[in-house]
Amino acid sequence: xxxxxxxxxxxxxxxxxxxxxxxxxxxxxxxxxxxxxxxxxxxxxxxxxxxxxxxxxxxxxxxxxxxxxxxxxxxxxxxxxxxxxxxxxxxxxxxxxxxxxxxxxxxxxxxxxxxxxxxxxxxxxxxxxxxxxxxxxxxxxxxxxxxxxxxxxxxxxxxxxxxxxxxxxxxxxxxxxxxxxxxxxxxxxxxxxxxxxxxxxxxxxxxxxxxxxxxxxxxxxxxxxxxxxxxxxxxxxxxxxxxxxxxxxxxxxxxxxxxxxxxxxxxxxxxxxxxxxxxxxxxxxxxxxxxxxxxxxxxxxxxxxxxxxxxxxxxxxxxxxxx
Length: 323
Prior knowledge:
Elements: E1 2-9, E2 12-19, E3 29-38, H1 41-44, E4 57-58, E5 62-70, E6 82-86, E7 94-98, E8 102-104, H2 111-115, H3 118-130, E9 139-143, H4 148-159, E10 163-168, H5 171-178, E11 184-187, H6 194-200, E12 206-211, H7 218-224, E13 225-233, H8 247-252, E14 256-259, H9 267-280, H10 282-286, E15 294-299, H11 303-311, E16 318-322
Parallel strand pairs: 9-10, 9-12, 10-11, 12-13, 13-14, 15-16
Antiparallel strand pairs: 1-2, 1-4, 3-5, 3-7, 3-16, 5-6, 6-8
Helix pairs in contact: 3-4, 3-9, 6-7
């Protein structure tokens, strides 16, 4: 089968298509005939550490397709069933999923839409619901709202009944997201938005802030939070891994700061998030209350072009590889 491999070298990532054997599912796994996969920025930015220097590894992290073979002990899926989920090496013709992390695809979703769901919306579920405790009527602040995670946070936040403030350096992107329910668009690429957030929230501040950008936005996110506010750290595309902490504000306002990452979680911990997602979020997709936003779709052989487009930062929503 054909598979894309990725390698980090000289501060950048490079792609190469190779022939690879069709994988055999181990116990607890399912083999999936991949129909579509999604690009995620962190994999292609060498500084994120997801693609470490050294030998090339299979590229891609999430996919959708049909169950083609069951590993020993798997009883929750049947042959031919449509699934989506985390899939290491997803830019390939056949991939393996841990059956605990595979998610049934609602009939309302296309292959491309399904492939755009697993990673970003699982992250969003983790930070908005499992850790963030977002409630109807609360204010959600999302920095970098036009990114894949940012758009998903906007969509999920609105579905949960929250009001959303979002930052982006592009007026055009913000205008598009306003049509998707963005309540307060703030056009900025720097940390200068806390006063605008306080004004929009009648001086109360945001209840939950999602920082998809990194350390350059950290201190300003803290300043934008209200009493008992929560701050989710989910990305650092700015490459800044440190930020100023106002301990008095954290103390007085009873703030909570938490990370959203799967780097150190084991399979059962990831599976627990999947179960919560299936119970709380999957019905929102099935009913059409959340419909993934796809910016552009590329054919399998055009992954390098898709990577270049992602690196141009011109997209709003997800970039999909059709396989």
